[in-house]
Amino acid sequence: MMGAAFLALAACASEADTDVLERNKEVARNFYEDLWFSENTDKYAEYVADTYIVHDVGPRKGVEEVAVEQKNIADLFHSLGDMTGKIDYQIAEGDKVATRWFISLDPNEEVAAMGFPPVDGVAIINVFRFNDEGKIVEVWNHRHDVELPQPPGAGGE
Fold it and tell me: pTM (2 decimals)?
């Protein structure tokens, strides 16, 4: 009898873990759909905790930021031109979701005049850590920067 109860309890725990993983993957997908693949950036608070920690290039390493910063960053990119993207795949384990996605940007006339070429399907991998409520509390950014356009004069030109 004890063995059957243990197996039932383990099955329930496994289902709960799977439900959390799927919830977190859906939150991550919706985050990209709203903030990066369309301009529904006002929805940022549905996905990001009031504050989160970011690990990025430059001075944004281990920095705590307020949630609205995700909206501000996406709005900045959208202001450069027509930005779209698509998710390639997601991997979830524990409280983390890794998403590989591609960004494309057709720069507007002003941005193109400054020498910024179109971006077509550059790979980005983000890892999000989620809290128990399903909000993003930590972000690691990994971009395939060799494929990203460099400002005029950068990269030894």
Answer: 0.82
